[in-house]
Amino acid sequence: MKMGMVVGTVVATQKDEKLKGLRLMLVRDLTLNLDEKDSFVVAADSVGAGVGEVVLYASGSSARMTTLTSEKPCDATIMAIVDTVTVGGDVVYEKVPASGQAD
Predict the structure, then answer these.
(1) Mean of the pLDDT values across residues 83-91?
(2) DSSP readout, the chain?
(3) What pTM did the predictor assign?
(4) What does the alpha-carbon distance between residue 53 and residue 26 come to, in Å, rounded to a whole number?
(5) Class of 2-94 per CATH?
(6) How far is CA 97 from CA 52, 67, 79, 101, in A?
């Protein structure tokens, strides 16, 4: 698993039949302290992630192990939206609830 931030979306009107219905998101890799790296990946979204959210994604054959991506030509899949990251006892990231949502 890797951690990244959703920084955008990818739209492809011409694609393999097996990819139809999948949302494709642009995910930038993050360091341990959540600094952005120069690397990114296009990942299928299996959890409804949005731009600006910190996510966990799987790549390689593990990317095809979710219900939505099974037997599909995906090399990366977002499989979790991160709520909190703690490093050495210090909270380095905590998701801020969207307005109108309870804590």
Answers:
(1) 93
(2) -EEEEEEEEE--SS--GGGTT-EEEEEEEE-TT-PEEEEEEEEEESS---TT-EEEEEEGGGGG-STTTTTS--SEEEEEE--EEEETTEEEEEPPPPTT---
(3) 0.87
(4) 11
(5) mainly beta
(6) 12, 27, 19, 6
Residue given tokens 């909270």 in the structure block: 91
* C-alpha separations of 5 from 18, 25, 82, 98 in Å: 25, 10, 10, 17
| Residue 66: closest CA among 11, 102, 10, 23 | 23
Q: What is the pLDDT of residues 37-55, one digit of tens each?
A: 999 999 999 999 999 999 9
Tokens of 90: 């210090």
φ, ψ of residue 36 in degrees (nearest 5): -75, 140
